[in-house]
Amino acid sequence: MCCDLKRRFLLLYATQKGQAKAIAEEIWRQAGAHGLEADMHCISEMDKYNLETEEDPVVIVISTTGTGDPPDTARKLVKKIQDTTLPPDHFAHLQYGLLGLGDSEYTFFCNGGKTVDRRLQELGAQHFYNTGLADDSVGLELVVDPWIDGLWLALEEAFLLQKKKEGMSSDAVSSSLYAAPQVGHELNSSSEVQNLKLEEERERCSDVLTQKLVDIHLVPSTRDTEPSLVHSVPPVSQSALNIPALPPEYIEVQFQDTHGENPRLSSLISEGTTFEVPVTKAVQLTREDAIKTALLLELDIADTVFDYQPGDAFCVICPNNVNEVEELLHILGLSEKGEYFVCVKVKQGTKKKGAAYPQHIPERSTLKFILTWCLEIRAIPKKAFLRALVECTSDAGEKRRLQELCSRQGASDYTRFIRDSNVCLLDLLQAFPSCKPSLNLLIEHLPKLQARSYSVSSSNLYQPGKLWFVFNIVEFPACPTRRISQKGVCTGWLAELVAPLLHPNKNTLDTKGGSSSSKKISIFARPKNTFHLPADPSVPFMMVGPGTGISPFIGFLQHRQKLREEHTDWEFGETWLFFGCRHQDRDYLFKQLRCFLENGTLTHLKVCFSRDSSTAEVAPPKYVQDVIRLYSKEVARVLLKERGYFYVCGDKKHMADGVSDAVVDILSMETEADKLEAMKILAMLREAKRYLQDVWS
Ligand code: FAD
């Protein structure tokens, strides 16, 4: 009787960077093992499914992008379901389960998923399974894995309910209920979940391996008691392991000749027009003894149609580190093939569902080009990648450790030694020397190398044809899994690129002139931004930008100064800037702020220094959020009475939350409302786009 049960469900994913897709593919794979048919589609493929008539359960995996938006691929569907003329029972026939992906360090956590979930509920759709909200800041898998585990039972129940609705006899229902445990049995036998027993030989091999790694200082000699990337301890080392199914290979790579040219970088970008522009100035804004090094670069955009408003951000196309690419080629045994053009194809007859040509790999380019410009070789390997690497590892001890790291039993080891340690493919290949993956695996598992975003730090009105931006050179010190320190992919590359240009007179920001430079970088605009000056110049606004968070506000102030010069008859609202850094004499990035204050562009400048010692009787505030609290009356007046704007830019982890907490306290105190009410006022201000954040990690 159970064979009569319909065992299909619709599986939709809305992905921005591929994570939702990878999770949907995992669900698809596991569905097969549960004897279910997952009809999987990208949510944008609206010609392939129809929610209006869908009778089977629907599973949606959806990520969040930008400031809480659903991914671009979901835009069409979201627009469609947002139609206010739809009746409240429009989706009454629909049963669904939704898994949202997000990052709680951003304000609108999982908002893409929440938006779709809320709207489906409003239109009468029913949950057959509780919504899961997975948080990338602590590890998506903490929610994703148990959510997928529970999905199968929930689906079984949904199928039964569906049958009941279809008027099936109670006999049939009870016999199919009985069928559920059998599904569990199928999972064990055919899902490739493998029980691997610890073998004696493994101990021997592991010891040899660990000793080798101790020799090269990758693991401490306390190896017997302390787990590390390459070494496990009980219970993991003695457990039978549940490891994920081996992802089917789907890419085929052939080496061709060495003749021809690599594609232009613009062909790698689908988000808009790319501009190759010269760097005309580079200034180090921090002293040599500052903890972080901040650089200001000036780009010459005069000969392009690239346009921006102060507050906009743009993207820089950056390559991977040349030494890391060389080392990768060496480890893969492909050093001789770097300049060869490669032909990438989807493997004929692959078992991978929806296998498609990876859009970020050009049809014809050299191996070096692919590793340099297309693949994020520093990406933290996902468990599916580790699973695939197991098959390319010859040493039994190394193999076992890789199995552990992708297994359920080794989940906390994965989090500790891979995810939280920011281990990348190269670190793994050095730690597991018998692992020799083929190029196709890298193309299958490494994500697209993303362009990095930067906030514009200038005004096109103030200095036409020029664009400034400011960044800290990101530095990662050496650690047990990495013997040498590293710099951020983009900031490390930019720092090296502009080293010959670096202004000898530090902190000189003369906007005139500018040297001609042969150093060029490729940039493109970042769409959709609301972080702009108020349209009405008479409205007051407050800016909070410690560290490099000051960057867009320099653009705001330049713009405002120019407007004041050009429109002497206009009314201009007051402007506040809260700036903070560690030391007044080491990393006060723009001492020129005083000029804005002197010429009246900036009405109030409040600064604080978190690491300078003070001899004052009452210690001065250390952080911008502390300073803001000192001006609570003014904050409340600007925001509530004068309908002003409040801008926050910079570090999202430590600063932005501290600032919004301070604003909530101020609103609560000044309006005599309780904290919950004050939070609602802040939410309203955000909604009205009068409390705006541009934050990054
Ligand atoms: P990456 O190599 O990408 O490393 C960055 C992060 O990856 C680290 O913080 C860490 O979490 C992780 N990581 C990678 N490797 C390791 C490792 N070995 N050890 C430990 N952790 C590791 N930045 C600015 O400085 N100025 C701006 O004006 C600015 N504006 C932005 C505007 C927007 C809209 C956004 C989204 C971001 C902005 N950023 C800005 C951040 C910027 O885009 C980059 O993230 C930053 O410059 C780092 O890039 P990177 O390639 O050098 O670092």
Automatic annotation (TrEMBL):
- The chain positions of domain Flavodoxin-like read 9-152
Looking up InterPro entries in the UniProt record yields: CysJ-like_FAD-binding, FAD-bd_FR_type, Flavdoxin-like, Flavodoxin/NO_synth, Flavoprot_Pyr_Nucl_cyt_Rdtase, Flavoprotein-like_sf, FNR_nucleotide-bd, NADPH_Cyt_P450_Rdtase_alpha
Name of the featured protein: Methionine synthase reductase
- Main location (coarse class): cytoplasm
Going by the UniProt record, its keywords in alphabetical order are: Amino-acid biosynthesis, Cytoplasm, FAD, Flavoprotein, FMN, Methionine biosynthesis, NADP, Oxidoreductase, Phosphoprotein, S-adenosyl-L-methionine
Q: Which GO terms describe its molecular function?
A: [methionine synthase] reductase (NADPH) activity; flavin adenine dinucleotide binding; FMN binding
Catalyzed reaction equations: 2 cob(II)alamin + A + 2 H2O + 2 H(+) = 2 aquacob(III)alamin + AH2
**Cell compartments where the protein resides:** Cytoplasm
Keyword Membrane applies: no
List, for all copies, the residue spans of the domain called FAD-binding FR-type: 272-534
Biological process, per Gene Ontology: cobalamin metabolic process; folic acid metabolic process; homocysteine metabolic process; methionine biosynthetic process
Source organism phylogeny: Eukaryota, Metazoa, Chordata, Craniata, Vertebrata
UniProt xrefs under Pfam families: FAD_binding_1, Flavodoxin_1, NAD_binding_1
